[in-house]
């Protein structure tokens, strides 16, 4: 049915008034039904700072009851009570109006009634009483984001262009972090693009030594790849952007449930416990950010965005103590830390080395070309292996604070290192990872333990076996004994001379022949200011994302459907067997065979639908167990591998996807399915195009960003030298 003339006329007026191009309109549609909601988020971004907020209806966003002051530095309990008092005030008014009161109205009742259509029903008003919400303003944060964005947008545009993605996606950090690369949320998301740990680990290194979510450049490449994946899975940019918050699987379920990919229909009709206010509004918030970003002068007046700062990036050929780098580069720790926010506190506190292959970013002050100083590091300042971790097994009666005090480490560091959500919840027998204290670096002496070998000790402390033999006067490397006291290579000036003797030639050669990547790149100016703003916005409020994610973060990039349909059936996913289903359902496999008419010996096939029996457990319990299994499977895999890109394979006659996945590309079938969710794996014919994720082992040296090839292009922030 064609649009009424009035609607067409409205669209024409909006197209004239909006700075968004016609191409952008095609990629990011703005149906008339979204106009009021886009306007609401524009007001959030431009009219009020985060010391105030709107009390509004969470369904009809044009209904704003009041702007109420709630200072960002107000303590949580006081702020919550103030908001609750204002909500109850309007709930009372709406409930009185819902009883049909239209006469003898107070001034406040009359004002509230005028916010609704003239013929509003009592039923509508009664429902509205349960939908009152508070939205904190963002104008000051958006203004700061516009200033910070200048340091990162050139690189973001280059990245999007390299992957053939729309440049409009560059405004998404306004919604996520206000372009704050050090932002953290209470939900565990971090960085410019607000990656959670499980999603981020698909593309980035995230551990106690390096958290690349905090590197705005690596995180940008990861976000672009995730958005590209979302688009391939969902088929439209409104759904791909919503999937950034709700997850690709959630948006596929939304399409199936509503029967369309229309964003308006999905926002209005899709019902899911996890599709809440944030997910429902993520796309319109993005559109509002796009408008405000393109008309920044109109809303905020003249601004002076940060300029990209020239820096060089050097891939380290060895594990190196950070103090050695500071000395060689003649930089203080503050300056080096500002340029390398991805390095974790164990590195800066001396518990861990800067890892081999890490791309160290060095500001070009007064000039670049410091690669020679890195190559000239002393042999005893280079190590073949990382400092090993220690572990503690929790005993009865112990608390986390007690354990931290025992090992003289910070409680916060122990919590972060082990990914603990609550420092009060540890259990007897739990194994906790401990950082190695500064005096645990390879200096001094080591007492041989039963089962030790000389080569193992050398590897553990990152020194050569030959140096260890010479220092301790050992002629037979197989003749060591438990209790023997060994001197380590860096324990004295003599040890250093011995290590120079054993490794000097090797390292002198390496200094000449090692391919050290050097390039000029962009980093933000005033980095110290950005770091201090990591957790606090002006006024003292926490730097929470505007619309926090509403999906299972561990499976947010997984488009597979792990739910049970109303008729009690499921779709078989990769790696699942009848044994899995029987275990999760607390049944026998034979019972499942009988229900589905499966003879003994026949396996289930990925994509097949099965009828299940929920006589022993609920569907909710089954879904939880199923997701836990796949979460563990994927987390274990991404501890060892990360995704560095994709390629396309055209299926040839006689090829099977199993052979392609397991033998040619060495990709697990479940991951191949995630990148090809609409492909029928049981009926693939010659000529079918299959997207293959490219993987890299995490143990291997990371590819420098400047040499990551995407569709034949080299991705770099600026020119490459060296």
From TrEMBL:
Residues 1-22 form the signal peptide. One of its GO terms (biological process) is peptidoglycan metabolic process. SUPFAM superfamilies: LysM domain, Lysozyme-like. Residues 491-515 are annotated as: Disordered. CDD domains: LysM, MltD-like. Gene3D superfamilies: 1.10.530.10, LysM domain. Pfam families: LysM, SLT. Keywords: Signal. Residues 390-434, 444-488, 647-692 form the LysM domain. One of its GO terms (cellular component) is membrane. InterPro entries: LysM (IPR018392), LysM_dom_sf (IPR036779), Lysozyme-like_dom_sf (IPR023346), Transglyc_AS (IPR000189), Transglycosylase_SLT_dom_1 (IPR008258). GO terms for molecular function: peptidoglycan lytic transglycosylase activity. Belongs to the transglycosylase Slt family. PANTHER family: LYSM DOMAIN-CONTAINING GPI-ANCHORED PROTEIN 2 (PTHR33734), MEMBRANE-BOUND LYTIC MUREIN TRANSGLYCOSYLASE D (PTHR33734:SF22). This is Lytic transglycosylase catalytic. The lineage of its organism: Bacteria, Pseudomonadati, Pseudomonadota, Gammaproteobacteria, Chromatiales.
